[in-house]
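Tutorial handout. Part one gives the primary structure; part two gives the three-dimensional structure as tokens.
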Amino acid sequence: MIIQVEWKEIIISSIALIGAIWAGVQYLVKKLVDQRFNKRLEDHKFELQVLLENNKFDFQRKVQDFSLYTSRKHAIYAELYDLFLRADGYVRRLLTQPNITLQDFYDKQDLAYNLSKADIPVHIANRFVEDWENKNREDTIRELIKYLEQFEYIRTKDAVNNAKNTFLVNRIFLSEETHKIMSELNQIYANIIFTQEVMGRVQPQKKLIKNLTEAVKSELAIGYYS
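Part two.
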């Protein structure tokens, strides 16, 4: 028995098989590509989310740091302004304190009242009041004048040093203009303290305190948001 091979059918079947295989390969390739694309897409989404969270955290940290810095800066300006005003007040009082004479005190109560206003320690004030009653009053006044001058000098020197030291510690927060004004005031006060100690009274410069007031007001009015 002779089997006749129908080449036409074989060719058609082969083509159909190849087509089916090719379609399957295309499907598998597409499936594989889609899977890889989806995985890369998810990975990219994850990376973007991580980046977004990091940027969000960094932004929040910078906002918090900025807020703390601004609050600290304003507090330092207020503190330094107060210290320099106090120092300036002590310097002016040191340079303009009136001459004290026996006629400035009428009685024991008047002396005690004036000493209390001068913030002299109680035990020192009591000693002068006792000397007023029990010793020569002119000698007591001379001793009192000497003590008051030294007391005012020490108190002024402490106020000036306090302002200067606080300025040196916190000058990094200051604007160029404020830094310049406070530096000049420190130099003036140092010269006044030295001159007062060695040579006697000198005239203070008043303009810088006005400039300092304007500079501090200007700095505290800035929002620092630009």
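Part three, for discussion. Residues 1-5, 198-202 have pLDDT under 50 and may be disordered. Residues 74-222 form one domain.
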